[in-house]
Every structure is written in structure tokens, then in C-alpha cells.
User: Fold these one by one.
Assistant:
Number 1:
Amino acid sequence: LSGLRRSLIPGLCDTASRNARRGLGPLAFFEIGSVFGVDGHGAYSERNAIGGLVCGGIVHPSWHRVTGDVAPFYVGKGLVERLLAQWRLTGEFERSSDSRLHPLRQAGVCVNGVRLGLVGELDPEWQERLHLRERCAVFEMQAEPLRAAASARERQSVGLSRFPSVVRDL
């Protein structure tokens, strides 16, 4: 690439577009990586970010499961809430205005009063340019403040189950 990326969202969208053009779906991706920006003093800064994209249903259709049409915004918001819960954090959501996202289906993600990122549904024009037939939800959050907030809390690990999951019991 010719420049430093300012967000993980364009890369996630490009990956979704390539897979959708090949007829794959439903799609779900995540990425943890560096993004760059300009701080208040005009100097470049590097930070780690966590991003994700979900396009289409998050549950594969099956003979024993009905898949409803869940709004992508709520799927993305649920993923963010689940991610925060894994770190034993509680997030608040506030109004946001990102041009890449649907104007009425987006929110800023805050933890302890600090805005860490955003979640929302991709703007329909973006989806059309990317050749995505299904509505998509994306999120991106700063990783370092999450890590700092979570390290202030006691961590608890849980062992793996001895029994593997069963998809269909005959």
C-alpha cells in the first residue's frame, strides 16, 4: 500500500467485497492491527485497533433453526457488547456521525466516559460500490484503552470443556 492506514474498516470492506464477488457468504471478519493518525501537536501517532465486519446472517441456515432477518446494526452492537463483556467492561453508546456508515444506524462506543471507537451499518452507497448484496455491520475500537481498562479489573480464566460441541445429535 502507498500510505499509512487511518482505519481498519476499508481493509475489512475490501476483503468482504473480494469474497462476496466470489459468491461466498455469509461473511464475518476481524482484524487487530496498527492504524495511524495525527495528534493535537501535528505529530503522527500509531495505535493498535480492533475491527470487525459481519455481512449477511451470522447463523448458517439449517433444517432445525429458523434464521430471521436481524438488523446488522444490532448484530454489530451485540458483538461489541460481547467483546467488552469478555474484558469485563461495560460500554455506553452515543450518537456518532461517520460518513462511511449509515447516517441513522451508527453509534460511538464509550468505556468509562472515554470514546474508544464506533459501530454501525455500512452506508448503502459504500455497499453498492463494494458489490455487497447483504447489509453489513462494522466496528472499530482502540485496543490500548481496552487493555488498560481491563487490566485494572481482576482477570479470571475458565478451563476448556472436556466435551466437544455437537452440531447434530443422531
Number 2:
Amino acid sequence: SGNPFFIREVLLHLAEEGALVHARGGWSAAVAVETLRIPETVRQVIERRLGRLGDAARRLMDSAALFTETVRFDIAAQVAGLEETAGLNALDEVLAAQLLKSTPDPHAYEFTHALVRHTLYGALNAPRRVRLHRQIAEAMERAYGADAERYAGEIARQYYQSAALPG
């Protein structure tokens, strides 16, 4: 009675490591099965997969972890300090790694599983989380402009999470 998400993540992890290869219409182990290093928990698998991301993709994911529902690419990239091309390349990397997925809105993305978001969020130290929440709140106000009232709940939540900062 295993966890399908765990199995999926382990298989993606092994494929990314090169321990599983796709050839002749099927998958096979590229190393002796006894030598496969299979993580014991879902969080360990996710942490290993995140560890293979490039610096820009990891920064994008760190800022994305602070969104509650959908992740606005432009805001997450801005908070991550990525200019447009670097941000788009980072987005391509996390989409290929199947950590984020597209939504009907071409500017918004979702985590493939809540545990990916929780693992990222938990890895951020408290001072960084507080500052990122504030940066996201401010970036949301700028991005939404006159339409900010429509997103007031999310903006307020971001400000609330950054209440330890002055201002």
C-alpha cells in the first residue's frame, strides 16, 4: 500500500541520477539494483531532486514556495532577482523537472504536489522567509496595480507573514 507520489518521485530521482535508463521501449537499471540509493522518505527524495537544480532555478523555487496557491511567474522571478531570460530558463528547468506545472493562466503555475512546496518552505530560515514574504507583498502590489484590491487577501497574507519586519 505504497504512496504513489513517493514512487513517482523515487523513479524521477533515479532517472535524473542515471540509475534508470529508457531504452528499447522500456526502463532498466543502469547499475546493479543492490547499489541503488533509494531515499527512505518523500522529503529526502524531494530534497535530492531540488539539490540538482541550478542556482537560478532553486532561487525561483524558493520564492515560489511562499505563494499559497498559484505562483505568479513574474513576481516569483522578480523576488528571486532574475531578469527575464534567466527567469524563463529557470522556469523551463523546474517544469522539465516536473516540480511546477502549468495552469490555464499563462502567467501562473502550481506545484506538482504540496510536499514540494512544504519541503522548500521548511528549508528556508525564518529571517529569509519573513523578508521574502515582504518582497512578494510589495511585488504583488506593484504588479497588480489598480487591480490589487482583487488580490487583497493574498497580499494581506504576505504582509502578515512579514509582520516581524518594521513597516
Number 3:
Amino acid sequence: SGTNQFKATDFNDATGFFDNAFWSGANNPIVCSAKGQNLTALMESWQQIYAWGNIGSEILQDDGITPFVNIPGAFIEAGLEAPYSLVRGDNAIFALCVIDGKRVVVQVIGSTPKVISEPIARVLAEMSTVSDAIGDLVSVGGLAIYLLQFPTSGQTWAYDYKNGEWFRWGSWNTYTGEHDNFLGQHTC
């Protein structure tokens, strides 16, 4: 965190073998340099590494020579706003991002982000803090849901990504007489 570099397990020069306890040395970090941004999250999907920053995501792969290299032209133009909102499912990545200064939820297929949050755009824009948002995938009664919890604002939003619909999930707070966030946080 706070740099544009990360390390991976590597061959140990002393033994000549791949060693899970040996990390690539300080002289051989993997550098994300497409937009000069620091990393906020790393995600592995489809044998590729998605290195997310606040401007976008570089996509890296193993080229058979060096551990990981950037895929030419593969850059997701969506800056990650909430690192724990990242989830992968159904051949897509879902995340809470910023595109052109606007807070959005995206569904990324390959390296193309599709904004899916237009129905709740105003709600997202009015939230003071979203960096603590937590994403999860939930399957309930045949529905495929991307669940976004917003702890600071006390809201939970569910996106039915098969039907393209948003729903607010919550629980009734008898003390305040209002709806709070959904009590569940993850599913198994």
C-alpha cells in the first residue's frame, strides 16, 4: 500500500528452486506504471493480476520469462474507490469506482467497465464516505446478487446482476424508527 510496486513469490537464487517463502527481492519488484498511481488493491482473476489504483487498473500476466508483465493496452479506466468492494463472479468483476470524477459501480468484463449504478447514482453521490464499502456475491432463491454494504452511511444495496435491478436491503431499527443497513455481511 502507498507504492506502485508489489512482490510475488519467486525462485530462490540460493537454492535454484521456486520457494513459496522467498519473495522477489527489492531489486526485482513488479511495478505498475501506466498512470503513475499507487496501488489500492490487487486481485487475481482468469490467471491475470488486476492491480487497482485510484485512477484505474493495470492488468498483468505471466509471460513465461518474468513473473508478471503488463498486457499492452489492457487498462481499466475506472479508479477504485473502495478496495473491499471488489468481487469476482459470473465472468465479471464488480467494484465501486470513480470514472470522470463520478462515483459509480462497475461491472468489468475483460478490461471494459460497464457502469451499472445509474438507478442509484444520486444515493452514491450523496454519501460522505464510501471507502469502507464491502462487496460480496449472494445467491438467494435463484437470484444472483452483488451486495454492497456501506457501514458509514448505514445502507446496503443489492444489485440483481441477471436482471439489472437495484434494491435497498435493510433492517428496521426500533429505536430510531428508520431502516438501517442489512444485518448480514457475507454469505456462505
